[in-house]
Amino acid sequence: MVDQAAVLSRLEAGVGTEARARSSIQIVPIKGLPIVAVIIVGLIVAISTNSPWALAFYHVAGGGLWTGVDLFVGLVIGPILGSLSIPARAEFSARFMPMMVLIMPTLVIMTLASGFQLAVDIGNFNAANVNHGWLVGSFIVVGIMATIALALLEPANIAVLFEMNKPHPNGAVIARLMRRFVYTAGITGLMQIATLVIMTRVASQ
Amino acid sequence: MSAEVAIPDAPPVTQVAGASLVLVVVGGIVMASSFPSRPALGVPIALLCLSAILLVIAVLLLVRSPGFAWGTFFLVGRWALLAYTISAGMIEFSFLHNHASGAPLLVVTLMLVLFAINVPLLIAFTVARYQTG
Q1: pLDDT at residue A56, as a whole number
Q2: B2 domain-assigned
Q3: Does residue B75 form part of some domain?
Q4: Which end of chain B has the least Cβ crowding within 10 Å, N or C?
């Protein structure tokens, strides 16, 4: 196992290729903001017009990507990240985390807002509807995932970027925040399996 | 990178604000579950009040913590507030578009206000607690 303290000491001393100068990390990728704006405007139009195709597109595309990204990050990237040395995690995170800062909230809002409207239009919200119970179940699953993501995962994600932007980042802080990221991403990844079960059930009855 | 720097202690703002967020999310689930019918508002209002109290406690804990990096807190907080105001606005728009009105709309709006304050508070606090004041 890599002795992380030794690696960090070597980095502090400027030994090894990892110690090369790292440019300041852009915490929110500015280039991605116009894309997010276009997606949000499209979402507002889809809801305003009650277009079945547009709502289904936003819900299926957004939900599929959200579930896929969560599963992949939680069950594939997370364990790999957890097994890397702290400098390697820092290098990976410096490129990966800023993208997640934009991608995940955008996918979440496009999925939830379009899904809500779709459920209203189809009639799934009516208490007598066969899907009503499943829908409430999906609210509970999403509520748990949202709480974990908003209270723990996303703050850790952004805090680690700020820490890495310091001239002398604190390895212990990065390790603690990355551990939080890996665990919470794993939990939300597993919970997405419940979402898949519920949504395929709703779509097929 | 420095490995030996100690991690600073911090007041339990994440725990308290997180509990506040849980209550507002549960309230939102209760409200949405009975939509578009008019829901019974007793439980959602109770959850809303408890959530607001916890949020105030979280803010008080924050204000009383010495040497806190307020500059970083406000830098991160204002951008997060903008982002989550847009998110909350989208949810509010969905309810308005579906003709929500009166007391249920007021309760949902207040829940969304708490949500839009709570999440930036959590993000900004988590970032700022590791920065120097």
Answers
A1: 95
A2: no
A3: yes
A4: C
